[in-house]
Amino acid sequence: YVFLGTAVLLIAVINGVAIALVRVWNPSREVRALVPPSAKRESIWGVEHDMQAGAAEAARSGHVDAQLRSGARPKGQSRPVWDNPVLWREVCTWAYGRKVIAIRVVYLLTFAAAAWAVHASLASAEASAATALLPVAAGPALPLLFISLVIVNALAVTSVTNERDGKTLDLLLATDLSPKEFIFGKIGGVLWVSKEMIVLPMLLCGYVWFRRGMTLEEVIYTSGGLAVMNLFVVMLGLHCGMIYANSRTAVSVSLGTVFFLFLGVVTCVLMMVSFSGSFEMQLAPFVAFILGGGVGLFVSLGSRNPSAAIATASLSVPFATFYAIVSFLRGMPLAVFIVMCAAYGFTTAAMLIPAIYEFDVAMGRTTGSD
Fold first, then answer.
1. Is this model's pTM higher than 0.90 or not?
2. Is 77 a domain residue?
3. Least confidently predicted of 45-59, 90-104, 207-221
């Protein structure tokens, strides 16, 4: 009850802060042209053209690159740039804005609460292990792992949408950067910025092993699976950010995919368990979530740039997630690890390879028939 109350309180605080500061964190969502009283006379193109130009200039001035350029750095002084300038910018500058600090602080508080709950559950393991469906440490740890994946995915998709909103993406793509430098630079930058969300859950698994709550084999499988899943959510965010020109649509599709693959499939498993007495009753949620969800994934991820790999991944990932959850409940960690690595590794490659070798198609600037 203490962990549940703490989690509910943290959820309320996080949502309250996000709602209150959403306009501060994302000023480029709604850029309104403000014409001062002493504005110049309208140009020959008309008032509407001048207002659009002012809005675009305001968006560019609000982007982090413009803020960095307008800083007080002395003229003639510059920092050495790495061979991959995209990765250098993601790691060595405030490319994601100052909001990353707030995200890290809130996540560290959430991690501390989850770690304390894991410690408390391990202390009382002898009393609850006999009747528990899940391992004693899995209850408080699984929400933390899910939150970590959601944050990493959100950072990945906004790393592209912020460039687009700030009117710097087209300028960046007009340079001599190769698609490989851009994609791997973005992947490396997201992994660096979200390093706490990646490393801390693995350290928590190590603590559970130290307290004899997991075997060494289970720790290796869990850490390897987390590494694969983090690469998947990063590539998913970049994929959605590139194929959708509208930032809100890209964020919605990316986060919606993560929520479906985990919460949606878990809901399907629970519904099938509750209908365990009738195969006909179990078939309906299975078809709705697994098959219907697979078709929905293909529409969301592959309808703009369809490919056989994306179609195969979209139809196989929901079923693989379902099988992995059932195998986890049955105490089969090796099966979970193999299925998750195969399904999500293939899906990651299905999004990564076109992004590198068919960059213009992935960005939506041309079609496969061109």
1. no
2. no
3. 45-59
